[in-house]
Amino acid sequence: MYSSSRIDAILQAEDIEGLLELGAPKDEYSHEAARIQSGLEGLRSDDPTEDQVSALIVSVWENAFDLSDQDIKKRSPAFRRVARQILETCLQSTEHSHP
């Protein structure tokens, strides 16, 4: 249901840390994408909310980038955009898989 490659593409497009813009390799966020995918599959809900997905992204980001509460707050709009895009993308792929 949740594709790590789709999540990675969303993270690349958002480039929350600005690392791709600085010349980091394209796979810079692949580990985070895999962790987010794993976390989504571990959610008890088949229909996660934007808040749940956003909280998951924050958790992954805190662990990956050792960010302060202030850093997290500053990135909050980007986390929400990513969460929304993940939900929209996965909803579209689910709709397309059912004839």
Question: Layout of SSEs?
Answer:
Layout: H1 4-14, H2 30-42, H3 50-65, H4 69-97
How would you portray this structure in words?
The chain has 99 residues and is an all-alpha fold. It has one domain (4-97): Endonuclease III, domain 1 (Orthogonal Bundle). The chain is 70% helix and 0% strand. α2 (30-42) packs across α3 (50-65). The radius of gyration is 13 Å and the shape is globular. The protein starts with a helix and ends with a helix. The relative contact order is 0.18. Mean pLDDT is 90; it is low at 95-99.
| Proper CATH architecture | Orthogonal Bundle
Alpha plus pi helix count: 4
What is the count of structural domains?
A: 1
CATH fold field value: Endonuclease III, domain 1
Protein structure class: mainly alpha
The ordered string of helix (H) and strand (E) elements is HHHH
* Rg over C-alpha atoms, rounded to the nearest angstrom: 13 Å
- Beta strand count: 0
Helix content: 55-70%
- Which overall shape is indicated by the principal axes computed on the Cα atoms? globular
Rounded to the nearest angstrom, the distance between the terminal CA atoms is: 16 Å
Which range does the strand content fall in?
Answer: under 5%
Q: Average pLDDT value?
A: 90
CATH class category name: Mainly Alpha
Report the uncertain regions. Answer: 95-99
Largest pleated sheet: none
